[in-house]
UniProtKB/TrEMBL annotation:
WD repeats lie at residues 29-70, 199-231. One of its GO terms (cellular component) is SMN complex. GO terms for biological process: spliceosomal snRNP assembly. SMART domains: WD40. One of its GO terms (molecular function) is RNA binding. SUPFAM superfamilies: WD40 repeat-like (SSF50978). Keywords: Repeat, WD repeat. InterPro entries: WD40/YVTN_repeat-like_dom_sf, WD40_repeat_dom_sf, WD40_rpt. This is Serine-threonine kinase receptor-associated protein. It comes from the Eukaryota. Gene3D superfamilies: YVTN repeat-like/Quinoprotein amine dehydrogenase.
């Protein structure tokens, strides 16, 4: 069962399931007809979801690789995330709309939370599935991170650079990480929005970052074809402030 806990997904046009400790490929999910922008596992690592340029988000059996459902959209789907209880799937993309699919009733039309001011690049569930984190591209190289409850906006950050992905620390909720086009993983204070650290190591833009469930580490995926896992516990003080230790790096 250790492999179940440490699984992670990588993707191009076919999402790949990998062992999180070794980086070894376990299997692939075949079915998308376009590039896959985002993929994730549910809490129990029994199902996977993927968001694609073929205007669909797909649900997969993580053990067999079988396609379970396909959810049609009207434009490119850039992001997807399971709720903690695994009953809901959240998607977002170029349509600028957040959609929530009930996986217990996949034929029922999704709930649309609200229209966004920009293309959605990242989504995540927070606070017992009552809050959504989304990262937007608003044009002219500007990005915003927004926290939205199911009833309205909680917090908004105007970022100093073009953000590709963001993830909130799940245990204390006092910081968040962002992957950006400058190849670094930036760490920000949740309350003030000020940068408090920076992890360096990638050689191309970082398109995906995600905290582990316990918040003790975060993973980053880059155009340099590596996935890096960073320790986010006790920080090392370096020239540019607190920087997490690199725990592991995996090639495709």
């Amino acid at each position: 069962m250790a492999m179940e806990v440490h699984r992670k997904l990588t993707a191009d046009s076919s999402p790949r399931l990998r062992n999180g400790e070794t980086g070894d490929c376990i299997g692939t999910f075949e079915g998308h007809k376009g590039a896959v922008w985002s993929c994730c596992l549910d809490t129990n690592a029994l199902r996977a979801a993927s968001a694609s340029a073929d205007f669909t988000a797909k649900l997969w059996d993580a053990l067999t690789g079988d396609e379970l459902d396909s959810f049609e959209h009207k434009h490119i789907v850039r992001a997807c995330a399971f709720s903690v209880d695994t009953h809901l799937l959240l998607t977002g993309g170029v349509e600028k709309i957040l959609r929530i699919f009930d996986l217990n009733h996949p034929d029922v039309p999704p709930r649309e939370v609200e229209s966004s001011p920009g293309s959605i690049r990242t989504v995540a569930w927070l606070h017992s599935d009552q809050t959504i984190l989304r990262n937007l591209y608003c044009g002219n190289f500007s990005s915003r991170n927004l926290l939205v409850t199911l009833f309205g906006l909680v917090k908004s950050y105007n970022m100093p650079c073009n953000v590709e992905s963001a993830s909130l620390e799940p245990k204390l909720g006092n910081k968040f990480v962002a992957g950006v086009e400058d190849m670094w993983i930036h760490i920000f204070d949740f309350n003030t929005g000020e940068q408090i650290g920076c992890n360096k190591g990638h050689h191309s833009p970082v398109h995906c970052v995600r905290f582990s469930p316990g918040g003790e580490s975060c993973a980053s995926g880059s155009e340099d074809r590596t996935i890096r896992i960073w320790q986010t516990g006790p920080a090392n003080l370096e020239e540019n402030g607190p920087t997490g230790k690199l725990k592991a790096s995996a090639l495709p």
